[in-house]
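Re: [help] complex structure
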Amino acid sequence: MNRIDAAFARLKESRKKAFVPYIVAGVPGSDETVEIVLELERLGADVIELGYPFSDPMADGVVNQAAANRALELGVDADAYFAMVAKIRERSQIPILVFSYLNPIFKLGFDAFARRAKAAGMDGMLLVDMPVEESLDLQAICKREDLSLIFLAAPTTTPERLEKVLQGGTGFLYYISRTGITGEQASFQQDFAAKVAAIKKASKLPVVVGFGISTPDHVRTVCGLVDGVVVGSALVRRTLEKKPFADMLADIKALVAPLAAPTKETWN
Amino acid sequence: MDPGQFPDKWGRFGQFGGKYAPEVLMPALEELETHYLALRENPAFAAELDLHLKEFVGRPSPLYFAERMTKKCGGAKIYLKREDLNHTGAHKINNSLGQVLIARHMGKKRIIAETGAGQHGVATASAAAKFDMECVIYMGRVDMERQAPNVQRMHLLGATVVPVESGSRTLKDAINEAIRDWVTNIGETHYVFGSALGPHPYPRIVRDFQKIIGEETERQMLEKEKRLPDYLVACVGGGSNAIGMFYNFLDKPSVKMIGVEAGGHGVLTGLHAARFAGGTLGVLHGAKSYVLQTKDGQIAETHSISAGLDYANVGPEHAMYRDLGRIQYTSATDEEALDAFGQLSRLEGIIPALESSHAVAEALRLAPTLSPDKLLVVNLSGRGDKDMATVIAAMEEVKKTAASKGAAAPGMPRP
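Output below.
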């Protein structure tokens, strides 16, 4: 059982929900990323999605695009990325997964990348443009390394596809709250609750919901339906601002504390 | 080997191709494939497409004997397949029309597309106008500047042209932005992918709508010369005009085929879009193929004077036939393409698109090495009206260089 599975088992036991923040590795800097992860853990994060930058993030909105560009300008490559993870591991046992696109991982080699991820102390990966049917090799490799391989489900996912996604995936299922790219939104799509409830019913894996979660009300709605929430763009936006790092950490705290709070309540 | 067996049901051409798309799109790709396979078997759809290809596009396009170019080269007999004479000025309309018809049958109300040179954007905007559908075209800011006449044409045709400011602001970035639109508006929208690229089933659909080029060429050549051509030459960006010309001849071993990539400033400079010269196996925009990328798998910036060839990935079907040795690939530099642009204009009174000029450049190199009994066909995929600003700027550049060297630049159009 890796750290992701253990975290969800513990949360289930204590009837709490998972708070899963997403940040892009290396933004605003490598040392700062380590500090941000540790701060997020203190603020109640249960799993960290650590973005590995790709030059052409075609499912991301402007905020995450800008963060990926920034990370690439700062020279974030596999060496820099795994060095950050190793530094976090010296000080924390929070579950961390790679969040990226297929090509950078494919280019380095699934096998080599998975071994390095494991050695650095990572627990799983999610590749946005890697659908379950193309992932047989990667499934075998992740199984061998005891890395969770997380897939997305979307409002467009049919029941037949959902079954395939649930068969191929481990760790948790990441449900996208809406058809669209990453970014903050004011409210959920109309049929959101019904769709999420159906996914939750069908899933043997814990279900977390992401894309557009940016207010405590969003978090509360999601916690009533599934096992956790992802907060991405709202947080990434704070890491892109040009200001002293202490102020940035304060901004992150001001954003995250109220968002994480509902996940720490006792849910049925 | 039967070329019809590719792609397989997973969308693979050997190890290339596939369907690497975000989950939101996967059901839409499945739906598109289902509709497409059904429509292919539907005689009413075939009749509808044929009618519009004839009366809207103006097919068949002529196979033209380039007499003065042949004489100048002093070798193989050169024919031009005149896709430049199609309505909207390039081969792109064959695919745009077909896909807009599919979209109509699927009940979609809104059409989106990416465009590089603007030819696919104009073709798609025309087809969308004809069938009264909303049309949004994504185009990199750099390409909007270098292909300004096509931007104006799209506006006239009622399309919205969205400038793309991200990345290198060229074709790759326009595709990213079109994908972002599609994942957001998936319900009512069909994405008319413009080249033999992208996730399955696009490479197959685009090829199927473009293969008419090679089918007509065979028929026309048999009429004119009573035999098959010996060489086919076409430029390769994503590769839709090339696969459209080549596909019909893949199982005819006597026919040699050459795809011409954009050599930019020269493949040794790194400033080019020659995927087969500098690319490695990768996945970009849904398809596994040869990709220009860094050792870390970040997509490299490409360079070509022609916006339509300025792209880091190449169609997966081309990648397979390249590895099998069935199709040869070479490249032509910006300079060679400009020279060919000028030569064809003066020799034949035909102004080719800068993309097609790369194929003309290869024909100018190859024909003199062949004996006069050989037949060579260049796919003249588009016309060059859109390229005036780029060519005039390049002429000024050459004039300046020539003046400083005290010599005239050979082959350039006279100012």
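Residues 306 and 354 of chain B are 5 Å apart (CA to CA).
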